[in-house]
Amino acid sequence: xxxxxxxxxxxxxxxxxxxxxxxxxxxxxxxxxxxxxxxxxxxxxxxxxxxxxxxxxxxxxxxxxxxxxxxxxxxxxxxxxxxxxxxxxxxxxxxxxxxxxxxxxxxxxxxxxxxxxxxxxxxxxxxxxxxxxxxxxxxxxxxxxxxxxxxxxxxxxxxxxxxxxxxxxxxxxxxxxxxxxxxxxxxxxxxxxxxxxxxxxxxxxxx
Length: 207
Prior knowledge:
- This protein has one domain: Porin (Beta Barrel), CATH 2.40.160.
- 18% of the residues are buried.
- The protein is mainly beta and 207 residues long.
- The protein is elongated, with a radius of gyration of 26 Å.
- It starts with a strand and ends in a 27-residue tail after the last strand.
- β2 (8-11) and β3 (15-19) form a beta hairpin.
- It has strands spanning 2-5, 8-11, 15-19, 22-32, 37-54, 65-83, 89-103, 112-128, 131-142, 169-180.
């Protein structure tokens, strides 16, 4: 799967940053317990410029620091699906939890891992029982690990070091991907029909 992720602004205590928009790509494996419910394991990566400015400096000016950051999400969560009656279209809704790993560019010195959560929704369109197309929207967020630490991308220079708290990252994206079915095909659920039984003939009593 692949898609487009929108930019996000990061607020530090003495500066602000921006993770630019860009293309994301990844894959997921979903184990379906039924046609309506499954468990998804997802990996998603995005490479995007990350820049920082001092507060009071317009975003149109040159940043005091910039790098090419890699954002990696490894997540797992439940997925619920609802089929549109009489069509190959399934609406899906899901929640995700896992880890976000930030890897700076080759000129920087560290990487960071943080707790991450996400929400997703969209549509699965099946051309056959084993082949389909997924179109969806997704919100991924990396939570701050705690006070006193930060998403550190490199050396900011003496005039900028030591003033960074950890912001929460929110990334909203639109995705599309190919669905390939493996394993057995889950039969469609059918509600059991009640069998009709004729009532017994009336009994006549003679007096």
